[in-house]
Amino acid sequence: AKWAIPAAMVAMPFLALAVELNIPTGEGVTLNNIKDIITTIANWLMVIGVVIAVLFLAWGGIKWITAGGDSKKVDDAKAIIKNGFIGLVVIFGIGVILRTASSVISRSFF
User: How many CA atoms lie within 13 A of 17 on its CB side?
Assistant: First the structure.
């Protein structure tokens, strides 16, 4: 299980490169094209971030269950769970910011 997180970290760039971007060729780039690219990238990054945060929450829960009453292990598990929740809040906050920026760029916000 010690290799799972490093393996996931190594696989992330390849998963991100699997995203198909609709970049226009031979014509001008419009604000809607830029908005679509930002939206596509933001959606994929949010999915990856949420998966990692959920893995942290599960990992912290498992560590807490297997702590066996050891207060040091329980404190470590609580820290992992807390960091997982902080990660989720940050991911959703960044998602709101990116969606707002995307709407402002495409002028559909106002």
Answer: 5
Q: Could you tell me which residues come within 8 angstroms of residue 12 by beta carbon, excluding any fewer than 6 positions away?
A: 48
Distance between CA 105 and CA 8 in Å, rounded?
33
Q: Which 3 state secondary structure label does DSSP give 54?
A: helix
Quick one: average pLDDT of 53-67? 93
The whole-model pTM stands at: 0.64
Closest CA to 84 of 106, 62, 107, 52: 52
How far is residue 80 from each of residues 64, 69, 97, measured CA to CA in Å?
Answer: 10, 17, 26
For residue range 65-89, list pLDDT tens digits in order.
999 889 999 999 999 999 999 999 9
With bands split at pLDDT 50, 70 and 90, how would you rate the model's confidence at 44?
A: confident
Q: Checking phi first, is residue 16 left (phi over 0); if not, alpha (psi -120 to 50) or beta?
A: alpha
